[in-house]
Amino acid sequence: MTKYQTIAGQIGEAIRSGILEPGTRIPSVRAVAGQHSVSTTTALEALRSLEGEGLIEARPRSGYFVLNRAGSVAAAPRFQFDSELEEDARVHLSIVGSPCRVRFDLATGDPGLYPLDRFGRLVRRASYRSPLLLGALARGTGHAAFKQQIVRSALDHGCRISPEEIIVTNGCIEALNLSLRAVTSHGDRVAVESPCYFVLLQMLRALGLVAVPIPCDPLRGMDLAVLAEVLQTTRIAAVVSVANGNNPVGSVADDEDKAALVAMLADRKIPLIEDDMFGDVCFAPSRPPALRSFDRQGGVLWCGGLSKTLMPSLRLGWVAAGRFTAQVQALKYTSTMATSELFQVAAAELMENGGYTRHLKRLRQRLARQHAELRQAVVRHFPLGTEVSHAEGGYVAWVRLPEAEGHPVSTRQLFTRAREAGIGFVPGYLFGGREFDDCLRLNAGYPWSREQEEAIAHLGQLVKQRQ
Amino acid sequence: MTKYQTIAGQIGEAIRSGILEPGTRIPSVRAVAGQHSVSTTTALEALRSLEGEGLIEARPRSGYFVLNRAGSVAAAPRFQFDSELEEDARVHLSIVGSPCRVRFDLATGDPGLYPLDRFGRLVRRASYRSPLLLGALARGTGHAAFKQQIVRSALDHGCRISPEEIIVTNGCIEALNLSLRAVTSHGDRVAVESPCYFVLLQMLRALGLVAVPIPCDPLRGMDLAVLAEVLQTTRIAAVVSVANGNNPVGSVADDEDKAALVAMLADRKIPLIEDDMFGDVCFAPSRPPALRSFDRQGGVLWCGGLSKTLMPSLRLGWVAAGRFTAQVQALKYTSTMATSELFQVAAAELMENGGYTRHLKRLRQRLARQHAELRQAVVRHFPLGTEVSHAEGGYVAWVRLPEAEGHPVSTRQLFTRAREAGIGFVPGYLFGGREFDDCLRLNAGYPWSREQEEAIAHLGQLVKQRQ
C-alpha cells in the first residue's frame, strides 16, 4: 500500500465506523499532511481518493466534509452550487438591490402603497412622549403592546400564540436566522422549498448548514411525498417552509397539506420554521392560515415581519418560537441584544386602532391587480412557451423561459444586459443553482405604468435575441 | 477487553492519530451505541473512560468534544463553567437587567446624562423630511453620512478607517457577533480577557467557540506575556480585547502594550476584534487610541456603538472590518439584512455639528466623579481588605471581597439577598466562573445620591454578615 492509500484507509475506516459522522468537516489537507508526516500532495491524493469513493465531498472554500454513509443510506439531494456558480452569485447578489430604473428585482412595493405618513406621525408622537423609547429594553424580548397586537392579529386567522413565546427581531431575516440556530447544529441538513428564497440559501451556507431541496409547485407548494421520502433516508434537522405566498413561486398551500406537513414533522419531532412574511398579503378573500395554526406541540417556529405589509424595509419582525423559546431568547441576546422600541410602539398603535387591517385589504387588492398586469405583459412580450406563475400572494412572479433551438437558455447573461438598460430582476439560479438557470423572478410591487410595459417588452426582446 | 474498552480504544485511536481534531464534537451517546450495537450505558462508559484519559470533555447540553492532543500539546486554559454554574448563570442572567430600585447592575447611565431631547428632535425632523427613512437600505451597509461621521470621529483619535470597510449594525453586540463569525469556525478557540464581559462569554458559547482566558489587570489590561505563551501552544483563531475602559475591570492599556498586542497578532496572522464601546468615555484628558490605530494590515476589526455615549440602549453600532469586510458584509446580510436608517441620520447630524463632542466631554467628567463617589462608598462600608478597581474609563467598577474566616466568599447568595432589598449588581462568576466568585461588578452610571449611599451601606452589611 502506498502512503496515500494508508491514510485514506484510516480516514475511510473512521467514516464507515461512524466515528466521523456525516456532515463533519475533515481536517484540512495541511493538517492531514502534518499528522502523517507526508507532503500536502500525498494528503490531497488521500482525500481525493476518499472523494472518489463517495465518502467525502469538497465544498468550495470550506474543505472536505463527510457524506452520508455510503451503502447504508442514499445520499440526500443537495443544491448544486459549484464554485463558478458561487462566484457569479456573489457578484449578482451585490448588484441586486442597488437602484435601477425599473425595479422588478427586490420583492418590495411602491412607497405609495403604504401608510408612511401615518406611521411617521405615530413614530414622532411616541418619540416625543418618551425620548427613552429611542433605545431598547436592555434584555427585553420586545415591547408588550406590540407583542399583544401580534397575538391578536394572529388570532384573527386562527393562530393561537402567547406573548411569552414572542421574540421581536430586527426584521424577519433575524427571526429566521435565530430560529435556524436554535434548532440546528453546524453541518446539519435543512429541508427547504426548491426553488428557494436566495437569502435563505445564503443564510444556510453562512451557518454551515446543508440545504436539502424539496420541489415546490407554483400551485400547491412543497411536495410532501418527496419530503416524506427524504425523511426516510436522511437526518433532517429542520424544515423551512413559506407556505403562504411562497417566494419565489407565489403558491399558497392547501389547508390539508399544511396540516399534513405539520403532523409529519411533529411525529418525527423535527422543528418546522415557518416564514409567514407574505401571509397577510395573499389574495384570497380570507387570510390563509399559518402552518402554526395546525401545531399542537410547539414545534412550529412562526416567523413574521412588517416590511412587506406596513412599510418597505422596516426592520421589525418576530418569531413565536413555541418550545424553542428559551433557545431563541438566548441567541437573540448574544446576537443583537434587543430591538429598538420606538417602531414597536408606533406599529402597535397602528395595529390597535384598526387602520392596519383596512390598509392590508387595500394593499392585497392592489398587489393582485399589479400581478395580473405583469403576467399579461410577460405573455404579450416574451416568446411562446414562456411559463409565468399565477401567484396567489406576495410580490413576485416566477418565470421559466422556453428552450432556444432545443437548448435551455440562461438568465445570467440576460441579467447583465437588462441592468445595462436599467431593468432589474433576479436571475433564477440564485434560487438553487443551474436547475433554475432558465428562470427569473419578477417583482409586481409597483403600479403598472407605460415604463414597466416598455421594460417587459425590452426584456422580451432580449430573450428573443438569444433564441 | 470489555466492549466499552474496545469502543474507547477505537475512538481514542482516532483522536491520537488526528482524525478527530481538537474541538470536534464526538457522536452522541445514542449514536455511538447504535453504531456499535451496544447499550447506551456501555457507550456512556466508553465516553467517560475517554474523558478520564483527558482526551475528550463533556460540555453541558452540547455533548462530548475532543480536547487538545494529550502529551503533545499542553491543554490551553479554559473558563471553568460546570453545569451547576451554568444553570445558576442562566437564572442570574435572566434577572440582571430586570428593573430594580438601585441599579448597580447594567453598565448604563442615568437618562439625565444624555442629550435625549436633542436627539429626539433630530429623529423627528429626519422622519418628517423623509418617511422612507423609517426603513433601511435593502442591501446597504449603512447610511453614508453616518459612516462619514464615524470616520471623522475616529480620525480625531488617530484611527484611520475608510467608509468602505464600515458595516453599521444593530448595536455593538451585533458588530462583535458578526466579527467573530467572520474570522472563526465552529469549535475554534478565542482568547479573551479574564474576567470577561459576560455577554461576550455567552456569545462565544452560543457560537460553539471556546473561550481561552488571558488574565486582565485592573491597571494594565491584558497580560501579553501569558497571551504569548498561550499562542506558543494553542491554535487561537481570534483575540477579543476591550483595551479602553475594560468591562469589567476598567483598565486602559498603555500605548506600548497596544502596539505590542497588534504586532504580536499581525505576525501570526491572527485577527484581533476590538470592542471599543468605552473608548469615548475614558477619563484621561485625551481620548486613548484604539488598538486599530496601530494596525497596518487590516487585521483589527474595530467595533463600536452609541448606547454608552449618545443614548442608553440605542441599538446603533458598527464595525470597521479591515481585510474581513466582505465576510462581515455577507454575514450581516443573512443575519439582519440591514440597519434602520432613521437613527443613523439623526446621529450623523448630532456628530456633525459638534454638539456630540461637547456632550462627550461633560459625560466623561460626570462618570469620573460618579466613579470616585462609588469607590469611596465601597471603602467606607465594605469590610477591610475589600479591593475596588480604580477604573480609567467606562461605567463599572470591579470589587473583590476579602476571605471570611480564611475561606473565600461567594457573591451568588449576596446577589439574591441584595435583589430582595431592591439592589442590583452583577455577580463575579458570570465573568468567567468560580475564580471570580468573590467578585462583583458595580455600575457607576447614576449620579451619587443618598439612596445609593444607603444601598452600598446595606450591601456592605450583607457582606459582613457572611463573615
UniProtKB/TrEMBL annotation, chains A, B:
Keyword field: Aminotransferase, DNA-binding, Plasmid, Pyridoxal phosphate, Transcription, Transcription regulation, Transferase
* Record GO terms (molecular function): DNA binding; DNA-binding transcription factor activity; L-aspartate:2-oxoglutarate aminotransferase activity; pyridoxal phosphate binding
CDD domains, per the entry: AAT_like, WHTH_GntR
Q: Which SUPFAM superfamilies match?
A: PLP-dependent transferases, Winged helix' DNA-binding domain
> Sorted alphabetically, which Pfam families does this protein's record hold?
Aminotran_1_2, GntR
Enzyme kind, highest EC tier: transferase
Q: Per the UniProt record, which EC number(s) apply here?
A: 2.6.1.1
Taxonomic superkingdom: Bacteria
Question: What stretch or stretches form a coiled coil here?
Answer: none
Q: Which family does it belong to?
A: In the C-terminal section; belongs to the class-I pyridoxal-phosphate-dependent aminotransferase family.
Question: Which PANTHER family does the UniProt record give?
Answer: HTH-TYPE TRANSCRIPTIONAL REGULATORY PROTEIN GABR, TRANSCRIPTIONAL REGULATORY PROTEIN
Name the UniProt record assigns to this protein: Transcriptional regulator, GntR
Q: Which organism is it from?
A: Sinorhizobium americanum
Lineage runs: Bacteria, Pseudomonadati, Pseudomonadota, Alphaproteobacteria, Hyphomicrobiales
